[in-house]
Amino acid sequence: MNMNKVMVIGAGQMGGGIAQVAATAGLHVYVFDLNLEQAQQSVITIERFLEKAVAKKKITATEKADILSRIHITGELSRAKEVDLVIEAIVEKLDVKSQLFRQLDKICPPHTILASNTSSLPITEIAAATSRPQKVIGMHFMNPVPIMRLVEVIRGLATSDETFNTIEQLAKTMNKVAVEVNDNPGFVSNRVLMPMINEAIYCVYEGVATVEAVDDVMKLGMNHPMGPLTLADHIGLDTCLSIMEILHEGFADSKYRPCPLLRKYVKAGWVGKKSGRGFYTYD
Ligand code: CAA
Ligand code: NAD
Questions:
Q1: Of the listed 88, 92, 117, 140, which one is catalytic?
Q2: pLDDT at 1 over 90
Q3: What is the pLDDT of residue 2?
Q4: What residues contact 26, with CB distance under 8 A and at least 6 apart?
């Protein structure tokens, strides 16, 4: 399928990165967020990263200008009628995503693929909100999107081979490696990663060690590039909690129960780097 225009919905840390890699791959990108200021901020962040890339001679100033010229902020969801692909990156809540997919199904032409960047939610259920489940797919990027090579690609029950092949090819064009996984809670990435982060939070909750000590153990002892609590702050503690709840509910297994300290931080609004405070504080 010929892919020319894409709409990224949700311009938080993931949506901004996805818009950047899509525009870098030559696609025209509409960026839509309920919060227009957030969409504007995401483009400022993209500009800053591209400027750094120019300074390091990774791209030329002309390439930077070309990439930015392909990114357009819009306040109208109805512009999704112009695109070949939508990549959704809004909050990790099934009802909110399903509602959005229902709307998109009405707005978009029949050929448009609807992809979700969900970290853990069932693609089959999101697809069921539309009349085109064969064109709904999981396209799960990793954070930070411009750096991490993996895209988990998840078929729902009805996703067609054509849709899968198109998304796999697009991931390659974005210089990513697509790995196919089945539609199961948390897929592979978060089924493995998130219980590790949750357990790190339990270590703090139960007084086994301080936040810094837990991170040092995993960085210096296991060679992780970031400690699990720093990583949780980067991901967003609200997103971490949503993922744990989806694993807990999806498998009905107590081993996935979210740590009470994680709940408490989210209730306090301490959701990590994006709010200025999580396990650490940020300027
Ligand atoms: N966007 C774009 N570029 C970024 C970036 C961002 N948000 N953050 C860092 N970079 C770039 C830097 O500019 C730098 O580029 P150069 O090499 O050109 O200088 C490069 O990345 C390395 O950055 P730093 O030198 O500042 O820092 P670092 O060496 O510590 O690397 C890191 C940063 C790549 C993020 C590294 O710490 C890391 O790999 N952390 C773990 C990330 C991880 O596990 N991600 C998965 C999260 S889970 C997930 O995404 C799934 C989910 O559903 C929750
Ligand atoms: P975020 O909180 O940084 O951004 C979410 C954005 O969506 C916000 O700007 C918000 O205004 C916007 N939004 C919320 N509801 C909306 C709606 N109905 N329509 C339009 N915009 C809406 O979140 P994020 O970390 O970028 O995560 C987004 C998605 O990506 C989630 O599904 C998450 O699970 C997934 N994800 C996150 C990570 C991560 O490390 N943070 C990694 C991979 C996947």
A1: 140
A2: no
A3: 80
A4: 70, 173
C-alpha span between 139 and 156 (Å, rounded): 11
Q: Which ligand sits nearest to residue 190's alpha carbon?
A: 1
Ligand 1 pocket member 197 (CB < 6 A): no
C-alpha 278/C-alpha 230 separation (Å) is: 9
CA 78 from centroid of its chain's CA atoms: 22
Does residue 283 surpass a pLDDT of 90?
no
Question: Which stretches within the chain are classed as H helix?
Answer: 13-24, 36-55, 61-69, 94-107, 123-127, 161-173, 189-205, 211-222, 228-235, 237-251, 260-268
Mean pLDDT (the chain, rounded): 98
Q: For the stretch 133-158, what's the b/e string if a residue is b when 16 or more beta carbons lie within 10 angstroms of its beta carbon?
A: bbbbbbbbbbbebbeeeebbbbbbeb
All CATH 3.40.50.720 domain ranges in the chain, comma separated: 5-182
Active site residue 190: yes
**pLDDT tens digits for range 54-102:** 999 999 999 999 999 999 999 999 999 999 999 999 999 999 999 999 9
Residue 53: phi and psi, rounded to 5, are -65, -35
Query: What is the mean pLDDT of the segment spanning 199-213?
Result: 98
Is 105's pLDDT higher than 80?
A: yes
- Annotated active-site residue 28? The verdict is no
Q: What is the fold, at CATH topology level, of the domain defined by 5-182?
A: Rossmann fold (3.40.50)
Is-above-0.70 flag for pTM? yes
**What residue ranges of the chain are covered by domains with CATH 1.10.1040.10?**
190-274
If you count them, how many residues does the chain have? Answer: 283
Q: Is the pLDDT score of 275 beyond 80?
A: yes
CATH 1.10.1040.10 is the classification of domain 190-274: yes
Look up 119 and say whether it is catalytic.
Answer: yes
